[in-house]
Write a structure and sequence with these properties.
The structure holds 3 protein chains of 3 kinds. Chain B is of the alpha+beta class. Chain B has 7 helices and 5 strands. In chain B, strand 2, helix 5 and strand 3 form a beta-alpha-beta unit. Classes of the chains: A alpha/beta, B alpha+beta, C alpha+beta. Strand 1 of chain B pairs parallel with strand 6 of chain C.
């Protein structure tokens, strides 16, 4: 279960440079596909691997690629989504910082598979130093003949440019990202049309997450079937999990899909248990947008089966008792955490990041934040919980993009699993008016 | 929680002469060349970053109008974008813009206390600038440093695993650096574009 | 031609038609409301979500339903598509939710709003809104700004449909206003205290579904249901000169474009016609304009009076003998 595909060479000194990366077999996949494989072969290989988008939605990558409008007379684009802004998620930053060439290699292979000659990496504006690292790595790749015109003498041309964002979580949504890349406000587009037919500059476009693209090289090297045999069932391969919160060893871990959640949290190899010997209260396993689960339900499903780190196992039980793997941003809360305060905090995030284009999200996120803030500061009313559940349900599914769902789920799930804490807040304003009241468990 | 009165200031054009240096202009042209010829607007975000860096750390109306002319777009198209993204500042900022993360993972690891300490130490609240023009303090949403919480960003640099002592050291260093140049590593537009 | 069934009524439409357009082709109660979509403005729609419908079958080849409700204004029809609008409780529930969201920060100042009586938000609320509000928080309030000599902007009333931005983009040479800032602090504005001033700027008033953009020359002059709309025309070098004059007795209180039954302008008119020609002598009066809408204005009794009126529709009029 400690199979390392992406991070295999992470500890090698200088792995961020072209020469060291190349000496470890880097860019072999580029040479292989350009000289031996057709673009269809590459897409077929990715389909065989069962690779699913690592940005959060988990959509099969090979299938996404096959939607690209090949007949279009317009140029085709590949855009790497490096607008990593989901609270709890910091894996792409880690990957780009330490293994920039892994991403570039994957982008060259993917561009070739998609018939792309210009690709962009959209990096969130806060990651300025990452932009420096990527540009340096790109210059090395160009000067070694793996980018530019007539790559390795095969006649294939590809340019990759880095594009900075400027502070907007919404630009992680693929069509908002394309708008932003076109120099506009990050308003998600109304779909259809989808980017595969009308994306960047109205041209066929594929947008993939950093981790998704980075693993394309290794998949080509080992073969799709081999990759599919790693992991568990439809959750093939490995996944980067960025773990944070009240744990002993926060950081980025590459796990083989299927690793039990309990082992991940308590093993010294991964999170190393809960910090300060406290008890675990709850976990948000896939970035702040996915439903929160209390300790018992994150370790075991409602049926008592140990929960595993796979798309399927985490969603077991649906919204009632399950959650989602999402982007793999694993946030652990200890027993002292006030769930109401944290739910308010995350809702404030979605309120702040809503683009304001469609009415349910623009108005609903702010409404939820205000109600949650009232409850947290001792001004709650007994009907507020039902009101919040109702607002969340009215945002969910009715918005242009998934930010609405992402704002609704944390609220709905927190009330579903921790309703008593909300009720306590309403019933005991004198206690919760104290700012650092922490978990209400000690008062009950 | 602040009141819900939204008081967007009407900004004014001062008709000051704004012009990139020859070197910067060359860099800007290189950036524009990354995009198809008819899509110059694509360069808006990177060029605004450069303009903000070059013209005093914020985007005045004159600066935005200049960028619009360079890219061949309407002025309003620049205003629309500059007001959308949180990293573009519309008013003068301090030499160092301290952005403290306030989102969930940082908050449960002491982020709120870090922000409070900064406010107390600098004697300013969220969004304000110290009277000496050195520091602007802003609470921001997730910086993507959740595993290294609490975190903040000062200009281009990330500062992580923050403690009160660590903040004292960082601010002391920045305060002592009294020359007009920003410290090494902060001029990312030179370094990284 | 593609076959589509909406609320059990089947029709055929051309490829590229949206569900909303197909519904308008059928007409009647099954037409979803549209607060942001405007057929004459490219790119409009999809934002307000009031036209959400349920697709219970995607097409003949793909018999699955869609997982979420879809915006009928921007979803193209597929052959064999089956759609539910007013026959779906889920859709009606969602529409109720949208009205609630649109209203929580709305000032509800209809008594002093010039748009009252011809306001799409009023109509939508009347049909789908709650009788009371569940919103107990402070309402959002923008400071007032002016955006032109003849156009009043009331940002508090705006629902951010973006129509006025599309008008400026698609009808005029130079757009000076747009949507600024983000999220629920977004506002329509010029950023620099600019004025929206060009020959066709007045059309932003007609496309505005609420009272956010109103005609200053008509400000507080009369409630719309007290004035009678007449089809009028004049020869104009800038536009077709075909307009609607809203009259009180012999006086023209305001000029607007002619709106169809979905509240959309038949033709955009120029500012000269709209703001400067308020004398009856400026216009040829064709006759009363039928308001084919369910708004307050069409509830007025004037149509009954007009039947016995001396003003006959143009086509029925005979030239006086000399």
């Amino acid at each position: 279960m400690d199979r390392q595909i992406l991070l295999e060479h992470i500890a090698v000194p200088g792995i961020e440079t072209f020469d060291v990366f190349r000496s470890k077999g880097g860019y072999n996949a580029v040479a292989k596909v350009l000289k031996e494989l057709s673009s269809e072969d590459v897409v077929a290989e990715i389909k065989k691997s069962g690779l699913r988008g690592r940005g959060g939605a988990g959509f099969p990558t090979g299938l996404k690629w096959s939607f690209i409008d090949k007949k279009s007379s317009k140029p085709k684009y590949l855009v790497c989504n490096a607008d990593e802004s989901e609270p709890g998620t910091f894996k792409d930053r880690y990957l780009m910082e330490h293994l920039p060439h892994q991403l570039i290699e994957g982008m060259i292979v993917s561009s070739y598979a998609l018939g792309v000659n210009t690709a962009y990496i959209y990096v969130r504006g806060e990651f300025k130093y990452i932009i420096g690292i990527l540009n340096k790595a790109l210059r090395e790749t160009y000067s070694n003949g793996f980018l530019g015109n007539n790559i390795l003498g095969t006649g294939y041309n590809l340019d990759i440019h880095v594009h900075p964002g400027a502070g907007a979580y919404i630009c992680g949504e693929e069509t908002a990202l394309l708008e932003s890349l076109e120099g506009k406000r990050g308003n998600p587009r109304i779909k259809p049309p989808f980017p595969a037919s009308k994306g960047l500059y109205d041209s066929p476009t594929v947008v993939n997450n950093v981790e998704t693209l980075a693993v394309v090289g290794p998949i080509i090297n080992m073969g799709g079937e081999k990759y599919a045999s790693i992991g568990l069932g439809k959750s093939s391969g490995t996944k980067l999990i960025s773990a944070c919160g009240n744990i002993n060893k926060p950081g980025v871990f590459e796990i083989e899909m299927g690793l039990p959640v309990e082992e991940f949290i308590y093993s010294q190899k991964y999170c190393g248990g809960i910090s300060n010997n406290k008890k675990m209260k709850a976990v948000i396993p896939g970035g702040s947008s996915v439903p929160i689960l209390p300790a018992n339900l994150i370790l075991k499903t409602a049926k008592g089966i140990p929960r595993l780190l796979t798309y399927e196992s985490l969603s077991e039980g649906g919204f009632e008792t399950g959650t989602m793997l999402g982007s793999g941003g694993f946030i652990v809360y200890d027993e002292d955490t006030c769930i109401v305060r944290n739910t308010w905090n995350l809702t404030r995030f979605y309120h702040h990041e809503s683009c304001g284009q469609c009415s349910p999200c623009r108005e609903g996120t702010g409404w939820m934040e205000k109600v949650l803030h009232r409850i947290e500061t001792g001004e709650g009313r007994s009907h507020d919980m039902d009101l919040l559940v109702s607002i969340a349900s009215k945002i969910e599914g009715n918005t242009i993009c998934p930010l609405g769902d992402a704002a609704a789920w944390p609220v709905a799930s927190a009330i579903r699993h921790f309703r008593n804490e909300f009720e306590f807040h309403v019933a005991h304003p004198e206690i919760v008016k104290i700012k650092d009241h922490g978990s209400i468990e000690k008062y009950t | 929680m602040p009141g819900f009165k939204i008081d967007h200031i009407q900004y004014k054009k001062n008709n000051l002469k704004v012009e990139f240096s020859a070197d910067t202009l060359e860099k800007v042209e290189k950036i524009i060349a990354r995009y198809p010829a008819e899509c110059r607007k694509s360069a808006l975000l990177p060029v605004l970053h450069i303009a903000q860096e070059e013209f005093g750390g914020y985007l005045s109306v004159d600066v935005m109008d200049y960028v619009a002319v360079i890219l061949g777009i309407q002025y309003i198209e620049v205003y629309e974008v500059a007001t959308f993204y949180s990293q573009f500042y519309l008013e003068k900022t301090g030499k160092y813009v301290i952005e403290v993360c306030r989102t969930g993972p940082c908050a449960i690891c002491g982020g709120e206390k870090i922000s409070e300490y900064l406010q107390k130490k600098l004697k300013i609240s969220d969004g304000e600038t110290t009277s000496d023009g050195l520091f602007t303090l802003r609470e921001v949403e997730c910086l993507g440093a959740c595993g290294y919480a609490p975190a903040m960003q000062i200009n281009t640099e990330f500062y992580e695993h923050l403690t009160v002592d660590k903040i004292d050291t960082i601010l002391d260093l920045l305060t002592k650096n009294t020359n007009t140049e920003k410290p090494e590593g902060s001029r990312w537009t030179d370094k990284f574009f | 031609m593609l076959k589509i069934t909406i609320d059990n009524i089947t029709t055929e439409v051309e490829e590229g038609t949206t569900i909303l357009q197909a519904a308008r082709k059928i007409g009647g109660k099954i037409v979803p409301p549209a607060m942001c979509y405007y057929s004459k403005l490219k790119g409009s729609g999809g934002k307000c979500r009031s036209c959400l419908v349920k697709v219970s079958r995607n097409s003949t080849v793909d018999s699955k339903p869609t997982s979420k409700l879809v915006a009928s204004c921007s979803t193209p029809v597929q052959d064999g598509m089956i759609v539910q609008n007013i026959t779906s409780p889920e859709v009606l529930e969602a529409r109720k939710a949208i009205v609630e969201f649109l209203l929580i920060n709305h000032p509800l100042d209809c008594p002093v709003c010039d748009q009252a009586g011809e306001c799409d938000l009023q109509d939508l609320s009347f049909e789908h809104g709650l009788e009371t509000t569940r919103y107990e928080e402070e309402r959002r309030e923008f400071n007032q700004i002016d955006i032109g000599e003849n156009i009043k902007l009331h940002m508090n009333r705006c629902i951010l449909c973006y129509r006025c931005v599309y008008v400026a983009d698609q009808l005029t040479e130079k757009r000076v206003h747009g949507v600024l800032f983000r999220g629920d602090a977004s506002e329509i504005g010029t950023y620099i205290g600019n004025v929206v001033d060009n020959d066709f700027s007045g059309n932003v008033i007609d496309v505005c579904p609420v009272g956010a953009l109103t005609d200053k020359t008509f400000r507080f002059k009369s409630r719309v249901w007290f004035v009678n709309p007449m089809n009028v025309h004049r020869s104009c070098t800038k536009c077709s000169g075909k307009a609607a004059a809203w009259m009180f007795g012999d006086e023209i209180y305001r000029i607007t474009g002619r709106k169809d039954k979905y509240g959309e302008l038949e033709e955009f008119i120029c500012n000269e016609c709209r703001f400067d020609k308020k004398d009856k002598k400026d216009w040829v009066i064709e006759g009363p304009r039928k308001i084919d809408r369910h708004s307050v204005i069409s509830q007025n009794h004037y149509e009954k009076i007009v039947k016995q009126s001396i003003i006959k529709p143009l086509e029925e009029r005979t030239e006086p003998q000399e």
